[in-house]
Amino acid sequence: MIKKLMSLLTQRDRKFLLLLLIFSIFISLMETVGIGIIMPFISVASDFSQIQSNEYYRYIYSILEFHSDISFVLAFGLFLIVFYLFRSVVNLFYFYLLARFSKGRYHLLAYRLFENYLGRNYKNFLDKNSSNLSKTIINEAQNLTNILSAILFMMSEIFVVVFIYSLMLYMNWKITILLSIILLLNVILLTKTISKKIKIEGSKREKFQQSFYEILNSSFGNFKMIKLKSNDKKILEEFAKVSGGFANSNITNETIAQFPRLFLEALGFIIVIFIVIYLVYKYQTDISGAMALISMFILGLYRLMPSANRILSSYNQIMFNHRSLDIIHNDLIYEIEDLGTDKTVFKEQIVLKDVSFSYMENKKVLDGINIKIKKGEKIAFIGESGSGKSTLADIIMGLYRPQNGEIYIDNTILNDNNIKDWRKKIGYIPQNIYLFDGTVAQNVAFDSEIDVKRVKDVLSKSDILSFLQKNSDGIDTKVGENGIKLSGGQRQRIAIARALYDNPEILVLDEATSALDNETETKIMDEIYEISEDKTLIIIAHRLSTITRCEKVYRLENGCLKIT
Question: Could you tell me which CATH class the domain 2-332 is placed in?
Fold first, then answer.
């Protein structure tokens, strides 16, 4: 676990972690001094004669030139007050550093996860459920910071326990050894029972949360279908089962997590009573002479029990969230695309030579495809559903890499060094258009800087600008989530404007008008042909009426390409 966790931290984080470790040792020493210094103070306050009989007290007394024993004791007490206040301030600063480090890693982890997901190749991204990706960034990254925080707390508390135990061993090793045995047996019992149960609930929590996100995404994405089918009761029952399971896992965890604290508190009181009984039995008299030792042990246990509880609580928190570390570690070691910045020049033709591709072994979607697409040419791919038309377009666009064969842009092979620049030359209009909840201008520019003049120009070419200016707020019209405030034809026109915004050399239409009625489809296709007059146009279509103006039409059958 530690090895996985360290692999997720940067070199700077590891250095900061080392400083925290050193600081935690200093804090632990302060805690130990805070425990050990009480016994001398009580001894001196109980018997002033010790000031002169003890060489250390006598030395301090003479160096600081105290005038009376009372002034020495009062000064001793004031020093302790200042020391404990200082200890509290230093502890507060330490906890701030712990929180800053552990919680501050959320930003780092979330960013790295998002960067990793965006950097994956297209095929690998499609293999992932988007709701799981969202869950990992939002929840699992947060849970991992809880693991990190728990480890840091354990680390600091372990040092406290070690130093206080060392002091207690020095004061009375017999009592301390007996206490150690009792505490160790109880800790083993708790980790084997309570911690094991919490780990199981943590695994359940992750599975329930995964289903939680999947149901939400599926329901909101199919809201219209849910309304039409009126089957929200069934969905609510599934959600209730998952949400209830998630809640129960957290309830179980938080309830059981309190057991170590309550158990150790009771054990602490029992131990104190046992120490008193042991001393009374040993000396067969009252224990007024051993009050200093008893006070030190009581104070030591008072500080030790919370530390033991925090160690166990932190360990249980790690067990409850352990799946988060596995998930994030596995996602971050996933290989991402390493693309170069070489330029591609498209002046003559695109050539696919013996290109083959398959999603599964021994089941080729494309088998030995050979085709030349001249610059400025208008071509179409037709074929049955599942014949590989979209896959072929994705390969031409550089989203999929052929498993066999090569793609040439003019005389240059398309590879990892130049594919990034090649993708920029392509405008893509899909069948399923996603418009995010923003303005028309934001959706057209997408992730580019908004050029108002350019936005209006491409909207005008897409024949929707006048409608927006007349009936809405122009380019500032809100489209709603996934363009719900617009009709299918309007969404299609905005998608065309988006594809044209960066002035691509190639336009690819992947059944872009199949959801429209014949009249709207014909009108939009006529506009596309006019817009793409100086561009290379690649169309994937079911209806032959949309490709009447194409110069070449290719049919895909059984992974092979034939011209019609």
Answer: mainly alpha
Domain 349-563 has CATH 3.40.50.300: yes
* Count, residues in the chain: 564
C-alpha–C-alpha distance, residues 109 and 212, integer Å:
22
- What dihedral angle (degrees, nearest 10) is formed by the CA atoms of 241, 245, 246, 248? 140
Per-residue pLDDT tens over the stretch 440-479: 898 888 877 888 999 898 888 888 888 888 878 888 888 8
Going by their DSSP bridges, the two strands 536-540 and 378-382 should be labelled as: parallel
Q: Which helix (H) or strand (E) holds 360?
A: strand 349-360
Are 564 and 554 within 8 A, CB to CB?
yes
Per 3-state DSSP, the chain is made up of helix, strand and coil in percentages (nearest 5) of: 65, 10, 20
Q: Which two tokens stand for residue 172?
A: 């009375």
The whole-angstrom separation of Cα 55 and Cα 72 is: 14
List the beta bridge partners of residue 476: none
- Rounded to the nearest 10°, the torsion over CA 459, 460, 461, 462 is 50
271-317 pLDDT tens trace: 667 766 766 666 666 555 565 566 666 666 666 767 777 777 787 78
pTM as predicted: 0.66
**Domain boundary assignment for the chain:** 2-332, 349-563
Beta bridge partners of 507: 427, 537
Q: Please choose, from the candidates 140, 155, 135, 146, the residue with its C-alpha nearest in 3D space to the C-alpha of residue 103.
A: 146
pLDDT, tens only, 378-431: 999 988 888 888 889 999 998 888 889 999 999 899 998 999 899 889 888 887
Those residues with Cβ within 8 angstroms of residue 510's Cβ, 6 or more apart along the chain or in another chain: 390, 393, 428, 429, 430, 431, 540
Spatial distance between the Cα atoms of 32 and 353, rounded to a whole number of angstroms: 75
